[in-house]
């Protein structure tokens, strides 16, 4: 299958930091279909050779194990091409179409690795130039919109140019191997399904924690915040995969139909429940890995007195028969104690303990990063003397050890899926808009609070696990975050 993959924003950080290294890994692994071309477009004047030299230089900044040898890069570079484009000029789109039509690849993938505010204009220009034929696909990076209204506006323009089967809204968390194993865990094994319901599960926790601060991206982050950056997309997508009903098939729409049902079943927010069930925070100065780090308000390009949240914790429920009464806790933040992404499924304790000592409830930990695996926490007899006292033990499955061959990364998997036309790990427009609808009352409540001169986010020390109120949020139900258990 011949393909042309076009990156709009071909010299931007996303392209050279994430997308090109992912494509090289697909090339190295022999997964990239033969007969492909990779075209970068941007405003600068460059030749193909100039662009190849630019990418080669940038590859020195990626993880050492993923850097190509000179010979590997030389072979990969034969796929790379460059074209100057002014994204506001119709003639440049006509020139791009002529370049693509000259060869007539079986599949054309147009990846918008640009600022989201350009998405509507680019899609309109693509439609006007006839770059929306059935063999053309468009990939849209997050964030797709700033709120429900802007997300709808983008989707309306995209739908006017491309049909839903041509639109690939990317969420790179869905490409992580551990997330794919979450689907396999639930729907490829009979072991957990009888337990995957309110009768057996007491609560579910989703944590997406980062040790880094905002760095030099203070101006971008201040217009986004943790709720938009991580909860509205990544965390909610993980929640839907945990809570969804078994789809009838592995077809993309069968899966996305079930995810949409979960989003529509989330307990809606009111002004009162935002205060009760949402904690927002902003990091202060502290210590991370033994080094002093500044407060968010002292970071580069962060406005004085900003109310932007760098931490969010939320308590919610899925209001259906399977999950009624089971709290779901979502948590994300920057400058936390560790880089850690995991889902913890806490099971109910035994109804009547007969052994002395600690009878801890079982839990399943699905680790997303930095490790990738599963832990099942159980209780077992110590086996020392005649004591019946139980001790906690865990069954630990490390996917990197279980599958010793080099595993496919998130962007590598998603790029290959876009080329192949597989939509399973991409977000449908109605899913996306429903997620925005759910978080919008929180954004509105915070905006009202800011305009009224309220105190803003709670402070927390960099290197901690966030504001104390986040622990209180869970303790109110008699539970604790996983690191406190």
Keywords:
single chain, 485 residues, alpha/beta, Rossmann fold, Dihydrodipicolinate Reductase, domain 2, 2 domains, globular, EC 1.1.1.49, glucose-6-phosphate dehydrogenase activity
Mind telling me the C-alpha Rg?
A: 24 Å
What distance lies between the first and last C-alpha atoms, to the nearest angstrom? 52 Å
Structural domain count: 2
- CATH superfamily grouping of the largest domain: Dihydrodipicolinate Reductase, domain 2
State the helical fraction: 25-40%
Mean pLDDT across every amino acid position: 91
Low-confidence spans: none
Report the CATH architecture of the largest domain: 2-Layer Sandwich
Number of strands: 17
What form results from the Cα inertia axes? globular
Largest sheet descriptor: 9 strands, mixed
- Annotated CATH topology of the largest domain: Dihydrodipicolinate Reductase, domain 2
Task: Give an account of the 3D structure.
The structure is a single chain. The protein is α/β, with parallel strands linked by helices and 485 residues long. It has two domains: 167 residues, Rossmann fold, CATH 3.40.50; 294 residues, Dihydrodipicolinate Reductase, domain 2 (2-Layer Sandwich), CATH 3.30.360. It is 36% helix and 22% strand. It is built from 15 helices and 17 strands. Strands 16-15-14-13-7-12-11-8-17 form a nine-stranded mixed beta sheet, with helices on both faces. A six-stranded parallel beta sheet has the order 3-2-1-4-5-6, with helices on both faces. Strands 9-10 form a two-stranded antiparallel sheet. A hairpin with an 8-residue loop joins strand 15 and strand 16. Helix 9 packs antiparallel against helix 14. The radius of gyration is 24 Å and the shape is globular. The mean pLDDT is 91.
